[in-house]
Recover the amino acids of this structure.
């Protein structure tokens, strides 16, 4: 059926912008075999599942089922103020940061003994730098599959030696996200700065530290490490622990 072929082709295109099919399934909290049936054109999701998929990829239902060769419907032009904001947001220069995975550590309000470890996936496309950040990966959800309570997507821009990560959470609260970091003057490459986060008691400003993931580590292992970590944990990056303890996570 054409609708199944269209769905499969559109899903393959959408998935290609993510690390793997497995990562998408985890983000959707969906069974892999069920999602593979959609990818292979063997099945069509029900209305609730289609909405879940559309919300995850940030598209409408028409785009999910439209013939791949069909032109996208003309979108309304942005209002002048919105257009100016958008153009300033994505205008160069591009941030001086390589693409790849970065462990991102946030201090926890009222818990000086902990940091929240997330992972940020940075992607460079010419002069445009985008990111996806996974936060608070909780185990034991739906027959052992984890879920991401924070799933931020956005752009990274550079202004006056600072790198701004600006995005929106595609999970639950859909709150905006702002993180500002700069390269610290250490021999080891590390980004330090501030982040505005939403906590159970409201918005808070916390310290943030970013370090690129190195060595042979799988995507599943990285996502499994997205959780609160004690500063006394011997497996915690010792530079991160030292910066938090000495209060140097925020540059002067």
């Amino acid at each position: 059926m054409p609708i199944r072929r269209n769905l499969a082709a559109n899903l393959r295109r959408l998935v290609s912008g993510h690390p793997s099919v497995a990562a998408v399934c985890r983000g959707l909290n969906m069974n892999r075999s069920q999602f593979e049936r959609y990818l292979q054109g063997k099945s069509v999701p029900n209305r609730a599942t289609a909405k879940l998929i559309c919300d995850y990829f940030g598209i409408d239902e028409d785009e999910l089922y439209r013939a791949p060769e069909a032109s996208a419907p003309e979108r309304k032009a942005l209002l002048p103020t919105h257009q100016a904001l958008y153009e300033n947001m994505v205008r160069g220069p591009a941030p001086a940061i390589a693409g790849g995975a970065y462990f991102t550590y946030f201090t926890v309000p009222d818990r000086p003994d902990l940091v929240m470890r997330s992972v940020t996936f940075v992607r460079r496309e010419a002069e445009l730098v985008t990111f996806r950040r996974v936060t608070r990966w909780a185990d034991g959800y739906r027959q052992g599959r984890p879920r991401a309570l924070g799933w931020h997507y956005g752009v990274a821009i550079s202004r006056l030696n600072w790198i701004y990560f600006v995005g929106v959470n595609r999970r639950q609260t859909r709150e905006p996200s702002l993180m500002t970091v700069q390269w610290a003057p250490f021999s080891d490459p590390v980004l330090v700065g501030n982040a505005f986060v939403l906590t159970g008691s409201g918005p808070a400003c916390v310290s943030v530290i970013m370090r690129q993931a190195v060595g042979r580590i799988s995507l599943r292992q990285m996502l499994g490490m997205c959780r609160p970590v004690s500063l006394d944990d011997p497996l915690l990056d010792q530079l991160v622990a030292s910066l938090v303890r000495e209060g140097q996570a925020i540059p002067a």
Remarks:
- The chain has eight helices and nine strands.
- The chain has a mean pLDDT of 81.
